[in-house]
Amino acid sequence: MITSKTQLDEFFATHSEEIARELMQKSQTWYEKIEDFAGQEFIVPATEKQLNDAIQKFVVEKVKAILSMHLEIHEGWLRLYATINYSGIYADLAVNLGVVHAQFDRYRQRFVFQQLTDTDVIALYSDSYVKSKAIHAALWFFKRGLKKDPLGMILEKINLVHQKDDILYLDIGRWLKKNEKIMATLRKVQVNHGYLAEQQLLLRANANVGEILNIGSSDQLITEADNPAVTNNATKAA
């Protein structure tokens, strides 16, 4: 038993290398576990109701031209319903979409959809009889003459999506940037992809461990310099 400061000093003098080696091994194991955790993906489920509530809050209430919008989610695909008002022209639309990609991090918040079916125009009317006839004729020409589906054109007109062929890019960061709670979460957890199951969207995500440990601080608590393997190599090189 160590009973004096002298004995304590002698103990450390005798066993200092052993203690340092043990601490180095433990810190290496700890660092590797953090790296492993950072690389692991986990699933974040979002129910159909949660998504429709989010659409109402972040899309319908933000985009004046969209009067209503909701999803029905199925295994591998979803059906989108929307009522749109553009320059006095009202359209009830429905279309089947697939999720190609989902990215949500501190830099970008985007869904990428593939259009799986032609758009069903459930109802189309306007505040003018002449305008109604003109829009019906334009729709007919667009679909029959140009052999194109009008969905992308309509959603681009109201500045909701960008279209490339049958791919629709929906960037929702413009509505999320001012929500500090959401952006703080996206600094700690990032979504890399999403896929559809019955009545839910499953998001593949992983944690930004460095941000979590730093709790948002600009001063990093853990950097590559803290990696014991790097420290050892630098010492040997010296």
Q: What do these coordinates show?
A:
By secondary structure, the chain is an alpha+beta fold. 42% of the residues lie in helices and 34% in strands. The protein is built from 8 helices and 10 strands. The strands form 2 sheets. Strands 2, 3, 4, 5, 6, 7 and 8 form a 7-stranded antiparallel β-sheet that branches. The protein has a 3-stranded antiparallel β-sheet with strand order 1-10-9. The two termini are 39 Å apart.
Give Rg in angstroms.
28 Å
Q: Note the main sheet.
A: 7 strands, antiparallel
Strand % is 25-35%
Shape: elongated
Number of strands: 10
Sequence of secondary-structure elements: HEHEEEEEHHEEHHEEHH
Short recap of the structure:
With 238 residues, the chain is of the alpha+beta class. The protein has helices spanning 5-39, 48-60, 129-145, 151-157, 173-176, 180-188, 209-214, 228-237; strands spanning 42-47, 66-74, 77-86, 89-104, 109-115, 120-126, 162-164, 167-171, 189-197, 200-207.
